[in-house]
Design a protein that fits this description.
6% strand, alpha+beta, Hypothetical protein af1432, five-stranded antiparallel sheet, elongated, 5 strands, binds fe (ii) ion
Length: 372
Amino acid sequence: MKAQEVFLAILTDLIRSVQAAALYPETHHRVQEPLASLLRRVRNEAKRLGGSLTVGFFGDRIVVDQFPFHESTPGIGRLAGRMASRGIEKVAIGEAVTLPEMKRFVYFVAGVGETDGARQWKEISFGRIRGDEPAEFPASAAGVALPAPQVLAGATDVLKDVLRSIAVKGPLGNVEEGRDIVAAVMKGLREEEFLIDRMVRLQARDDYTVAHSLNVCVMVVAQAAGLDLPEAVVRDIGLAALLHDIGKELVPAEILNKPGKLDSGEFAKISLHPVLGATHLRKISLGSDLPVIVCYEHHIRHDRSGYPTPRFPDVPHPASLMTQIADVYDALRTYRPYRTSLDRETAVGILRKGRGTEFEPVFLDRFLRMIS
Ligand SMILES: [Fe+2]
Ligand SMILES: [Fe+2]
């Protein structure tokens, strides 16, 4: 492997470790695997370079040793942004770095680490390179005030795998990771005051359905959490919201990402996603019927128009009605290849127009209060 390839592998390990740390406890294999790989590679390279490996962060550019990596992947862009928000322009890691110290650094960068000011860094030093700030952080970098915990920062990457694996492998798919994401959403709503606002601006550059599913999950959990339901029920509703568009994994990507209007044949194919998804989820043991119900009903409107045409006289399930509202709101607020994103006022105006017809009025009023 050439040095540059090794450096890219180190960056990739760091990105994966930080993303996983934002979502999982340190005992989880999704954290342990990339972390072990990161430690091994960093130690080797530090040794080869005379005892320490230096990484610089300059805007959207990351420089490892002397090799620059531009924002060539969303992961590198996000890592650079994260370092900038922590005021980190340079990190130097010694060859004797231990697993606990590397782990502590990764959790610090992820924004969910300990903030115990008494702890010192032995083999890792980091801080600014120039400017008014001291060259290195004071004795304990972990003691500085951190931005709000970014508990969901890694969720889209994990969710991408979860949706694929559930859609493709069916019963073998890892539903537990979906549950972990819902637990992180619930934790995030308790800890991050502006979570809903921040989530709705989350736009995955490469996978709309992933970012959209997470946004909808956050907004539905927030609605359900205000209903005095047992926590386990809120969790089931959250999982249902997270999986509501799983049927889209079974629709050809060219149709999903087509810029411009869909023809009637394409629209018919997309309109099958609730039925495709529900049929698929029915085969999987999820411990709750809600994901199947919400998946099937989330495009049925309060006045029973929409699709698929309901076969029974009952009104959609409350979890479906809440998901439907969040679903439309997120779609309006997000940039799509065929139209730009709408600002909050315009999106709210469109929702208001559908009060009592497209949207269940009591849930809609609660939702609008929640996002205002
Ligand atoms: Fe949908
Ligand atoms: Fe959706």
